[in-house]
Amino acid sequence: MADDYGGVFGAFPYAFRHSESWLFKLYVLVGALASGIVSLFVIFGLVVLIGATAAVPGGSLTLSRSFYVLVGLFIVAPLVAPILFVARRHRRTGSDRRYDLSLALMGFLFMLSVYVGLVISVPANLQTPAEPFTLGPVTVSALVPVVQLLYDLPPLYGLVPPVVCAAAIYGVHRLLR
Length: 177
Prior knowledge:
6 helices; two-stranded antiparallel sheet; mainly alpha; 177 residues
């Protein structure tokens, strides 16, 4: 049964087929799509960065190029970690719906934390004023103070939500294994 695993790329269909949790199956699809999009952004951004700095000799620019890839890795790794953890667990010990559900929730929470981190790190000159929005017949204004609070935080605090959620993914894995 473990013969169809096939490594990192094989973990996605393996986890999808062997999980009993519909939310986790949804996360496999969304997480694969999100990690693919983030990977493409990092690759295209790196190509643009190399093209813009090709005439400049090495040194600190080489370090910044490597840092760019490292940041991309720090975003993609927590996106695929729940899928890899679940695939490994199913291959070794079998199915556990609670484990799958918990890691799917943590994966979705990580995606939300990346968005929150991006909102925090928006430069002041690019921030748009937070306004209430309508959702059908209902006007939602509860998020206006939240967005304003996030805008008011120092940009470096944008690292906190993704780092905390990435650590929480590992913590949930360790707790429920």
